[in-house]
Design brief:
The protein has 478 residues and is α/β, with parallel strands linked by helices. 36% of the residues lie in helices and 19% in strands. Strands 14-13-12-11-7-10-9-8-15 form a 9-stranded mixed beta sheet, sandwiched between helices. It has a 6-stranded parallel beta sheet with strand order 3-2-1-4-5-6. The longest helix is centred in the middle third of the chain and has 26 residues, at 219-244. The chain is globular. The chain binds 6-O-phosphono-beta-D-glucopyranose. Residues 9-182 form the Glucose-6-phosphate dehydrogenase NAD-binding domain. Its EC number is 1.1.1.49. It catalyses: D-glucose 6-phosphate + NADP(+) = 6-phospho-D-glucono-1,5-lactone + NADPH + H(+). Substrate binds at residues 173, 177, 211, 230, 326.
Length: 478
């Protein structure tokens, strides 16, 4: 469905995120026919460049990051005609009048702050002073949204000075992933799951976001952040919320976000002994984390595993195990809802522990599988076997699966549609920091040193023990 006509300004339009994700994503949305012919994208940054130079830069970015669609030279030419460039000085007055004159007032105006949070205030103030943004404008901001509760509060306050909450779109790109939304469809669109979605039937839940990449030249940022701030505070907690929240009365931005907020607020503070931090070690051929981060004494974690509890009626007593790390065995993100064992088996001789597991695979191979127990086919008697009921999209959707937009594409289109459901509200972000801050402060107070783990492994041994102690086992990362 095409969106309404728009002018989208990308501050930081020459930056890494713009070149890797935002512009290739917009290009693909244009190809799909979702973007009206007149819609324009305006790169704005400090570099002294003209529109021609910018178009050339983005042509190269699409060739590099645009995927298979980047082969269509004519389509790229057409896309590039939408692009404009303005040199702006975020801390001065240069370029702002030009930007004002360039924008059309009768279409949706959106402003993507793809810049460090230190510039949010400067940009917001100038957008208003130069009468570029009005109360209908939409502001898109990226993570990291602060580095603790205090800085997140300050950022929210800065934005709130200039814009209303319904104008602010805080991106967590995990919410734009296809399966994450499908998770809500599965939970709330079926009668099957909801009655079982509680501590009577669920033994525990595992959330794994495993990466094979290291810090990839982002050492300076990452070393000040670590896996807790970079991944857990946002992506993993958002997944936790969607799994654990009560059914919202409607699929509407505030109804959904109210329920997510309640989950975060119900999280019990994490016991220090229920967290494992890790740092990847060197191998014969590749450097260790400290070398990648360019700090030989760094105590920043590239891996975290923890056990969380939600203090409410539905989830009391059900552990939520979460882990994420870099340079692990495989790139694989999965949420697994592990149901309880049968109380009693009627099948003589069947000693195996059969369990229903609903596994929601975010990437790669997005899809949802339900492990069920059936009779092993054939004449061998009543032998039971576990098989997956596979709801993988590639099969269910056939050739249409190719057209599934990536997270950024979808989220940017949602900004234009004015749909905030998949964006974080200010109070949610603050509540998430309020939960993670004491964990990070606890490490600091104890001078906690992360455990080394082998590259290509599933993380430090202690992370395995975290579940082992509870008589449970992580699902394999594959
Ligand atoms: C980002 C983190 O938010 O998410 C990165 O800053 C991480 O460190 C990335 O690699 C993972 O995203 P995805 O979509 O590749 O799983």
């Amino acid at each position: 469905i095409p969106v309404d006509d728009f002018d989208l300004v990308i501050f930081g339009g020459t930056g890494d995120l713009a070149r890797r994700k935002i512009l290739p994503g917009l290009y693909r949305r244009c190809l799909s026919g979702q973007v009206p012919d007149d819609a324009r994208i305006i790169g704005a940054a400090r570099s002294d460049m003209d529109t021609e130079g910018y178009r050339q830069m983005i042509r190269e970015a699409i060739a590099e990051f645009g995927g298979p669609e980047a082969a269509d030279g004519k389509a790229i030419d057409r896309f590039l005609t939408r692009l404009h460039y303005v040199t702006v000085d975020a801390r001065g007055d240069g370029g702002w009048k030009e930007l004002h004159d360039l924008l059309r007032k009768d279409v949706i105006n959106a402003f993507y702050f793809s810049v460090g949070p230190g510039l949010f205030g400067d940009l917001a103030e100038r957008l208003l002073r130069f009468e570029i943004a009005d109360t209908n404008a939409r502001i898109v901001v990226e993570k990291p949204f602060g580095r603790d509760l205090e800085s997140a509060r300050a950022l929210n306050a800065t934005l709130a000075q200039h814009f209303n909450e319904d104008q602010i779109y805080r991106i967590d790109h995990y919410l734009g992933k296809e399966t994450v939304q499908n998770l809500m469809a599965v939970r709330f669109g079926n009668v099957l799951f909801e009655p079982l979605w509680n501590n009577h039937y669920v033994d525990h839940i595992q959330i794994t976001v495993a990466e094979t990449v290291g810090v990839e030249g982002r050492g300076a940022y990452y070393d000040k952040s670590g896996a807790m701030r970079d991944m857990v505070q946002n992506h993993l907690m958002q997944l936790l919320c969607l799994i654990a929240m009560e059914p919202p009365s409607m699929f509407d931005a505030d109804a959904v976000r109210d329920e997510k907020l309640k989950v975060i607020r119900a999280l019990q503070p994490v016991d220090y002994h229920h967290i494992v931090r890790g740092q990847y070690d060197k191998t014969r051929t590749s450097a260790d984390y400290r070398t990648d981060a360019e700090d030989p004494r760094s105590h920043t974690e590239s891996f975290v595993a923890l056990k969380a509890h939600i203090n409410n009626w539905r989830w009391a007593g059900v552990p939520f195990y979460m882990r994420t790390g870099k340079k692990l065995k495989a790139r694989s993100s999965e949420i697994a809802v592990v149901f309880k064992d049968l109380g009693h088996s009627i099948f003589p001789g069947d000693e195996a522990r059969h369990r229903n597991i609903l596994s929601i695979q975010l990437q790669p191979n997005e899809g949802i599988k339900l492990q069920v127990t059936i009779k092993e086919p054939g004449p061998g008697g009543m032998r039971l076997v576990d098989v997956p009921l596979d709801m993988t999209f590639a099969e269910a959707l056939g050739p249409d699966a190719e057209g599934v937009p990536d997270a950024y594409e979808r989220l940017i289109m949602d900004v234009i549609r004015g749909n905030q459901t998949l964006f974080m509200r200010g109070d949610e972000v603050e509540a998430a920091w309020a939960w993670t801050d004491p964990i990070i402060e606890g490490w600091k107070a104890r001078n906690d040193v992360p455990k080394l783990y082998d590259q290509g492994s599933s993380g430090p041994e202690d992370a395995l023990m975290l579940l082992h102690r509870d008589g449970r086992k992580w699902r394999e990362i594959k």
